[in-house]
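Posted in: Structural Biology > Protein-Ligand Complexes

Title: Requesting predicted complex, magnesium ion in pocket

I'd be grateful if someone could produce the 3D structure tokens for the following input. Sequence and ligand are given below.
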Amino acid sequence: MYTKIWKIDPFNIDLTLIREAAEIIRRGGLVAFPTETVYGLGADVFNSAACRKIFEVKKRPMDNPLIIHIKDFEQLDLVSREVPEKIFKVIKRLWPGPLTVILKKSLEIPREATGGLDTVAVRSPAHPIALKLIELSDTPIAAPSANISGKPSPTKAEHVIEDFLGIIDGIIDGGETIFGIESTIINFLTDPPTLLRPGAYPVEIIEEIIGEKIYIPDFARGLGEAERALAPGMKYRHYAPDIPMFLVESSSYDDYKLSLLTDKILKLAKDLSRSYKIVTIAATRETIDIYEREFRDNPYIKIIDIGSRKNLYEIAKNIFDVLRKADKTKDSVLIVEGVEEKSLGLAIMNRLRKASSKRIVI
Ligand code: TXA
Ligand code: MG
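-- Reply #1 --
Done. Output follows.
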């Protein structure tokens, strides 16, 4: 299949190009597009054949439901019904933005989009290209992240091209996404509300807005297995590079713990370099010098900067790209440092734990 690529500047949108992409969505095709979180793989939510195609090309299990993207509150009634006042208040404050809520589905939504559930996951994305695409397609758009199921999510058009060139109808290249990590998914239908997936909106901020604690189950921290009934689709392995990945984490990251962490990684890297051609260490700016000093003369140990512990937005934005880049080095292994599970750190650690093949806690 020929995949059309449109390069569009989000700050100066070329409407003729978006119209072409929207026309494809209207005719039942698949178009990848940028959102403020990650790239989505979009289809008309009311077209069940198009929704089915999303699962096929992503190789996604059919019981892992999609997120529906709407332009504004006017489209809310098309996809959901009986929205509780409490949820309405939250989304009024936080949309458009990276918060996904679970609602009762409208009768028109095909079962293909929801994995047979009677609820839907809905959000309104804060990205000018995504909003324009939904508007011109004249329908809410079902869109999971635009990656082959199980792989790291796409934060750049290149990532989508790697996975889907020749496989989908079109890709809108709108540059790098803003947050680089997916939306926060909360089920406000439970009491207290349940965090299903930590994401770009820190839970603490949402708790402050609603004046209520949100329940954070272990699986939302990337620990243990999700129960199918509670969090459909969360049980599958996610975000994982093909190469082995070691996550080295701690319960806190003060100077003392950080020195234990780096000692552990220095030893681990030396051990692993006996079995693998290349060892990549993904380090934070606070610790990177330690590895660079130690392995200065060792061409088989590569060190990547993932950003500063003081700016978790930077780490979140880099993380999927780091996983994809490391994966390109054959016969290699990746070691990643953990970060504190606060604010965006909760989402980062959820992704890293799910991506890792081995987790070491010091
Ligand atoms: O930031 C994002 O949310 C991105 C962009 C493209 O918007 N999308 C995204 O979609 O991350 P995806 O498919 O990778 O993740 C959707 C997850 C599913 O794995 C599932 O766990 C949850 O949303 N979900 C969908 N419908 C649900 C429902 N009715 N109840 C509970 N969870 C649901
Ligand atoms: Mg995904």
